[in-house]
Design brief:
alpha+beta
Length: 456
């Protein structure tokens, strides 16, 4: 029998085998309780000793299945071993259920339809060929037992009448429709579930193809944005540099009115550079699917000081004090680019949305297997109803729109994506008029860990 597993998720097979074990314990308790009640009340004449023996065997088998399942959680078995374990459960269940049904009236027993549950569960995991093999075996067992009872080769255990075997004609008249109904139920159930599964798989494959196409298109778009924004940044940065030269008087003395015009142009150019930088970061995060998977050991203190140094001019223009507090030996598992995106965006926003003369602090401390990074400001704060929206792409708070008409609303979403790429998490606490604190938790590393510290 082929045992190819159709499900693409290995965990699905393990989950279903776990369901079987739990359901079998429920069935064990139900069968044992029902047999005990029937015997106590004297409702039927049945081979109770044999039935209790079969039920005990069911419990012992499920005990071994439970032990195997728990052992598999510690030493993960292969797909072949798990598939074999699943087949063993189904075969044992079919055999024991058939014996229980046979000794309690066979086709007279309404529980003979319970075989359908195993057909449905096996179809969820295995190929149609395996499902039909099980159904064929069941049909052969039912047909063989029916003919053997009819021919008197094996006894018939009557459920609804006491004593003696039924006459051949009476047995045939009563049980032939039941046998035909059970066989039809098994075949129809197998056909329906395999047909539905096949259609769902075909539809899922078509959806996956479309998703791959859209992912490729999105990656092409992101790469295009990345290239275009890189090309734009150079000339605009040069224009900004010329503006600053004029404002410093390096090009000669200029009239106050001209300087005012240059100052406004420089302000707009600076805003445009900020937007371009955000677009570059956004396109970089979108186009580099593996960007956070290959990480190295990075001393956090050096990264913080490096990023604060890049923003000193912006802070000085608003007389904002930049402060850092980080242990020297504290290291994180990260890439230099992603750490620059995280720190650069958060500190830039803290300066931008703080009043003149304020303070922006970056603090880091080790907390077990994590590094807790805090970026705090004394700015305007965030409205409580907006806290859940600030990490959405293109969303800008009311205060941000009032302070700066232009903007992308991509800064914080980019930071969140970068943090998650590093297997970290992020949250924010804010009070109106008092400022905001962003909490970032990143995987920690000891300073002596053997990883490449210069990994980009």
């Amino acid at each position: 029998m082929a045992s190819k597993i159709e499900s693409s998720e290995y965990t699905e097979l393990s989950r279903v085998t776990g369901w079987f074990v739990v359901l079998r314990w429920i069935a064990f308790a139900g069968v044992a309780g029902t047999l005990g009640a029937v015997r106590l009340l004297g409702l039927f004449e049945l081979p109770f000793a044999l039935l209790f023996a079969i039920t005990s065997l069911l419990g012992l088998l499920n005990l071994s299945f439970t032990a195997w399942l728990r052992l598999g959680r510690r030493a993960v078995p292969s797909r072949r071993q798990t598939a074999a374990f699943f087949h063993a459960q189904i075969v044992c269940d079919f055999a024991l259920l058939f014996l229980l049904v046979y000794f309690t009236g066979f086709l007279e027993n309404p529980f003979c339809t319970f075989f359908v549950f195993h057909i449905l569960m096996s179809a969820f995991i295995f190929s149609s060929r395996v499902v039909y093999a099980y159904v064929g075996a069941l049909v052969a067992m039912v047909t063989g037992a029916f003919l053997a009872e009819y021919l008197g080769l094996i006894p018939h255990f009557q459920l609804w009448s006491r004593g003696g075997s039924a006459a051949a004609a009476s047995y045939l008249g009563q049980n032939l429709p039941r046998a035909a109904g059970l066989v039809s139920l098994l075949l129809i159930s197998a056909y329906l579930i395999t047909s539905i599964k096949r259609r769902l798989e075909e539809k899922g494959q078509r959806i996956e193809v479309e998703l791959d196409r859209y992912r490729n298109l999105d990656k092409i778009k992101s790469n295009f944005i990345l290239q275009v924004t890189h090309e734009l940044r150079g000339p605009i940065a040069a224009v900004s540099g010329y503006h600053q030269m004029l404002l410093r008087g390096l090009g000669g003395e200029s009239p106050p009115k001209s300087l005012d015009i240059v100052r406004k142009a420089e302000h707009r150019t600076d805003n445009l550079l900020t937007i371009i930088d955000e677009m570059i970061d956004y396109a970089y995060m979108k186009s580099q699917g593996e960007v956070g998977r290959v990480r190295g050991r990075l001393p956090l203190r050096g990264a913080i000081e490096e990023n604060l140094e890049l923003l000193e001019t912006q802070a000085a223009a608003k007389r904002i004090t930049l402060a850092a507090n980080c242990p020297k030996d504290l290291c994180v598992s990260a890439t230099r680019d992603l750490l620059k995106i995280i720190l650069g965006n958060l500190v830039h926003n803290a300066i931008k949305y703080s009043p003149p003369g304020g303070r922006v602090s970056v603090t880091a401390q080790g907390e077990g297997r994590e590094v807790h990074l805090l970026v705090s400001d004394q700015g305007y704060g965030i409205e409580p109803e907006e806290l859940d929206k600030i990490f959405e792409e293109f969303y800008r708070t009311r205060a941000a729109r009032q302070l700066e008409r232009d903007g992308t609303g991509l800064g914080l979403p980019i930071v969140k994506r970068a943090v998650e790429s590093l297997a970290g998490r992020m949250s924010v606490y804010s009070e109106l008029g008092k400022g905001s604190t962003f909490h970032i938790f990143l995987p920690a590393l000891e300073a002596t860990d053997e990883q490449d510290p210069d990994h980009r």
